[in-house]
Amino acid sequence: MKKTLLATAIAGALGASAAAQAATVYDQDGTQLIVNGRIAMGIAGGGPEEVRNGQAEDNGAEFVDVYSRLGISMSHQINSDLKAFGRVEWRFTGDERNTANGFNEVRHSYIGLESASFGTVMAGNYDSFYNSHVAAPFDVYIDQGLNLTEGVGGGYQARGDSVGYITPNLSGFQAFLSAKHYSERGETNAEIETNGDDEIVTQGGVKYETGPLRLALGYVDDEDGRAGGSGEVLYGATASYAFTDNFSARLGYETRDSNDAALEAGGDAEDFDGFDTWGLGMTYAMGQWAFNADVYNVSVDNEDADNGWDDRTAWAAGAYYKVSSNFDVFLELYQGDQPDIDVSVTDPDVDVADGDDMYWLTGARYHF
To answer: Which UniProt key words apply to this protein (predicted)?
Structure first.
């Protein structure tokens, strides 16, 4: 999925490195095979303390892998208008947490057909269409602060058992629709009773791009039960504008109703409560440098500060420097503005999980 207009500036400084350095293994008679990936290492620290077994976990600094991955893209030009394509991508964790296991996630594995006249159809394990087309203007961070709700990412009711369609570009307009199937196959009646019935959840929307302006509107059927969602539909809209080749700004809004039945049954507010979120951000690139800054205002329907759910104003910022076409370094900051969480422990010195610590990540990436 291509990056949006909003990310153009930072892609020029950093993201284009990966595409430029991808290795074309085979390119003959309309058939192409490309290998690409990255190895990324960093140090992360801070962020809201998680609660486990009634106590707050430490959130000190740690050496981490930063989403290293290896991918293979393939395509075949069937005729002047129709192309078949496929991609598989693995994620591996290159630190001590996974050195004995190799790859730990198949991030992408899909095939499809692309036609300039009829559009694109694809099936398999691919990113959320909502994230790729609607929330994408805010997807300019390596780690935290990717999007408006700070939780909607590439896997949001997507990746695996999915079929999608994207219309051709009609004078700047495109529509998109994807469906994911959660199946009962291979389960016993007892397991189905526990996990829920099979479900098909959809997401889709429209976008419009002309010159420096990009607009997008979409939804995700965040079904409860087997799909594990909130049981309510998420709606979102984003607008982005490139004022110059170096500076672009973005505005976004997301909303979701409360699942009152789930809340009354004892469900966590974070999972089932409604919210309204506004996001405002910018990207600026200058030479080998690129910078991001975003602020999010989150208004929730039912505040539950004791359990970490409250109105808040979060922000994210990042600085990136391209050392070479293959190598870049970065620093990202994220302040979630989460309330502290009371925890029940016997030690009076450890009775609160600090939700207001700033998360930071710094490191380097080598693209190939």
So the answer is: Cell outer membrane, Ion transport, Membrane, Porin, Signal, Transmembrane, Transmembrane beta strand, Transport
Q: Which of 76-90, 225-239, 306-320 has the lowest mean pLDDT?
A: 306-320
| Three-class SS state of 19 | helix
Residues 74 and 78: their CA atoms lie apart, in Å, by 13
Handedness of CA 352, 357, 362, 367 (dihedral sign): positive
H helix or E strand, kind and range, residue 210: strand 199-210
Which H or E element spans position 35?
strand 31-45
CATH annotation of 5-367: 2.40.160.10
Please list, residue by residue across 309-345, b when 16 or more beta carbons sit within 10 angstroms of its beta carbon and e when fewer do. Answer: bbebebbbbbebbbeeeeebebebbbbbbbbbbebee
- Backbone φ, ψ for residue 95 (5° rounding): -125, -165
* Cβ atoms of residues 92 and 103 within 8 Å: yes
Instruction: Please give the single-letter amino acid code of residue 271.
Output: D
pLDDT at residue 192 above 70?
A: yes
The residues spanned by each domain of the chain are 5-367
pLDDT at 73: 96
Dist. CA 28–CA 18, nearest whole Å: 22
Please tell me the pTM assigned to this model. Answer: 0.87
* Cβ neighbours, 10 Å, residue 20: 11
User: SS3 for 80-144, per residue?
Assistant: CCEEEEEEEEEEECCCCCCCCCCEEEEEEEEEEEEECCCEEEEEEECCCHHHHHCCHHHCCCCCC
Q: Are strands 341-342 and 327-335 parallel, antiparallel or unpaired?
A: unpaired
Q: Mean pLDDT score of the chain, rounded to an integer?
A: 86
Residue 157 and residue 114: Cα distance in Å, rounded?
23
**Which pLDDT score is estimated for 346?**
53
